[in-house]
Amino acid sequence: MRASPETSQANSNASSPAAAQGAGTPRAQIGHGEVRHHRLRPSEHAFAYPTYFLMLPMRSLRARPEPALRRNRAGLLSFHDRDHGDGSSDALAWLDGLLASEGITDADGETWLHCYPRVLGYVFKPVSFWYCHRADDSLAAIVVEVNNTFGERHCYLLAGPQLGWGRELRAQKVFHVSPFCDVQGSYRFRFMRTAERTVARVDHDDETGPLLLTSVSGRLQTLTAASARRAFFGSPLMTLGVILRIHWQALRLWLKHVPFFGKPTPPQAFTSR
C-alpha cells in the first residue's frame, strides 16, 4: 500500500513526544489538520475534511492543570473526563486500571491523549488515541478508544515488542462502527509524531484485502486561551459537523448501493488486543 504524503513526512522524522516538545514539563497542545477517508470497494468513495483536536499530557495535567484547558467545566472548547473510558470522573485513573488489568505495569511515564474537544458542550469522539509511555519515554501501550453513533464504546489495546512509532500494528475488528462495513477482518494502525506534526492511520482490511484507508493528521501548537479561541471561531460547529458529515457520507454510500449491514450485538469484553 502506498503511503500518504503526511505519512511519509512524519515517518521520516518520527520521534518521541518528549523529544518533540524539548525539555521541561509537557504542555497541552492543539492540532490543526485533516481527516481523510478512502473506501476502495465495491464503489470507490473518498473525502477529506479540515479538523482540529487536542493532544493532552494527562499525567502532567494531573500534577499541574493547564489554565487554558477548560476541564470538566463549560467553555467554547472543553475537555471532560467522563467522555472517555467508563465515564468516571478521572479518565487517567480508568486508563491505569485498564492497563493493569491487561498486565501492563510499566506505563509510568507520560500518557498523551489525542481526542476531540467538546465544542459549546457538544461532544462526539469517533476515535481517541491514548499513547502510554514508560519512564524512559518509550511506548508501553497504545489504546485506541472507539465510539459509534449508537452510544457504544470499545477499546483496542496495542502492546508488545512490535510497538513503536512508524510501525504497522494490527488488531482484529470486533466492534461495529459503520453499517457499510461488516464486523470482520482486521485493522492496521500506524502512528507518527514529529516536533510539529502528528499522524494516526487506521486502515481496515477484509478477507479480500484493503477496504478502507483513514487518517487524521495535523500540526501541533501549544494550547493557549488565544489558540483555543482561534480554533473555535475558525470552526464553531466542528464537533456537530463531525456527526452531520458521518450521516451525509452514509447517504452517499447508500446512493452508491454499497451493501448495508445491520448492527450486531456489541462484544462482551470492553477491551480487545
Structure description:
With 273 residues, the protein is an alpha+beta fold. It has one domain. Helices cover 21% and strands 34% of the residues. The protein has 6 helices and 13 strands. The protein has helices at residues 5-11, 17-21, 58-63, 91-101, 225-234, 238-255; strands at 29-39, 45-57, 77-78, 111-115, 118-119, 127-133, 139-147, 153-158, 169-172, 186-193, 197-206, 209-222, 271-272. The protein has an 11-stranded mixed β-sheet with strand order 9-10-11-12-1-2-4-6-7-8-13. The protein has a two-stranded antiparallel sheet with strand order 3-5. A hairpin with a 5-residue loop joins strand 6 and strand 7. The longest helix has 18 residues, at 238-255. The protein is globular and about 50 Å long.
